[in-house]
Amino acid sequence: MGDNSSPNIVCDPERLIKKCRVCDSTNLQLAIDLGFQPWGNNFLKKEDVGKEPFYPLRVVFCIDCSTPQLDYTVPKETMFAEHTYLSGITKTLSEHFRSVAEEIDNRFFKNISHKSVLDIGSNDGTQLKHFKNLGYEVRGVESAEIPAKIANESGIPTVHAFFNLDSARKLNKKFDVINAAGIFFHLEELHSVCDAIKEILAEDGVFAVQFLYMKRIVENSAFDQIYHEHLLYYNLKNVETLLNRHGLSMFDAYLSPIHGGSIIGFVTHTGKRERSPQLVSLVEQEIENKSNEFSTYLQFAKRIEEMKKENLNYFGEAKKQGKRIFGMGAPVKGNTLLNYFGVGTDYLDYLVEKNELRRGLYSPGSHIPIVIEKELTELPDIYYVLAWNFKKEILANNQALIDKGIEFYFPVNPKEV
């Protein structure tokens, strides 16, 4: 793990779960062990390199409701109060958010004059800008100070708070649309959040939940999408178990290519709408593919070990040939991969980023310096692409470098959706 030979291990027994986060069962089995890792979004100032805490990063599987989940909870105040991720940086993501907003409006609320939307974990307001353009009254709730400030400054009313039943009631409003994009698997206060959604969703409202699809994570061998912020890993079966506990039901869903494969699910109050044939078909595919069986996760764990050997062999061969390698992107998931593989500055000189909030910082655990893409003064022979979920955009933006003979290597190659 870079130059960190004796990491600062933190394992508070009180933070280890004793029962399933979804169904409260105590029948949990270890499925995947990625060792002790730093919190992946804890990008470091130079003076803090080597001082970052390492926590257990393990996935356990609930035998009763089939939910894969982390067995250790890093406090939400540690992970989400000051994180530096901005959703508006990537064109692909903004376009996806626009498409979702237009779909929701066209399908459910096209002819309604006064309509409102709440975005949970609204970040810099990118998703809400697209709803605002469609005539919605918009409101965001965001736990991180900097993105919330950016959103408010750009005209997107955003409450700086953790979303739960208490903060939801303070909004004193019911919403036609509640959106949660890439946040539903983060929730330490999972059941309070579900109760809150149930309480403030209008009678005919739609809760749009967007989440990384665990079936696709396994199919893509995308183990780097396992990290401390992602407490839960959803297939349709287990997300339905969760929703049903709170009087909510999914009535439609489809698989989107965003982030290598995400479910865009549409949820409302139980008994309000029939399940769509599309949703029924997706659920049947999970059964056919044994996506909710413990044996599938044990096989996934073996594949992860093989990937480590393959990638270290690749690095070793490239270095033998005297090639210089930079990391492309510094996403949180990249830190899971780098730390599990044990890759640091012995292989990667820099991580090249667009997000200027990460200028001059170092990756947690591997301690690779981050440089801003537009400020690069030299080029590598190989870009090792950690932000692989934006593969098409990255290849399109860098065709000139590819033409010069620079290789773009993708440690994870997502299957087409």
Question: How is this structure best described in words?
Answer:
With 417 residues, the protein is α/β, with parallel strands linked by helices. It has a domain at 87-294: Rossmann fold, CATH 3.40.50.150. The protein is 32% helix and 22% strand. It contains 13 helices and 16 strands. A 7-stranded mixed sheet has the order 7-6-5-8-9-11-10, sandwiched between helices. The chain has a 5-stranded parallel sheet with strand order 14-13-12-15-16, with no helix packed on it. The longest helix has 27 residues, at 294-320. The mean pLDDT is 93.
Summarize the structure.
The chain has 417 residues and is an alpha/beta fold. The protein contains 13 helices and 16 strands. The chain has a domain at 87-294: Vaccinia Virus protein VP39 (Rossmann fold).
Rg over C-alpha atoms, rounded to the nearest angstrom: 21 Å
CATH structural class of the domain at 87-294: Alpha Beta
User: Helix amount, in percent?
Assistant: 25-40%
Can you give the mean pLDDT? 93
Key features?
13 helices, 5-stranded parallel β-sheet, Rossmann fold, 7-stranded mixed β-sheet, single chain, alpha/beta, 417 residues, 22% strand, globular
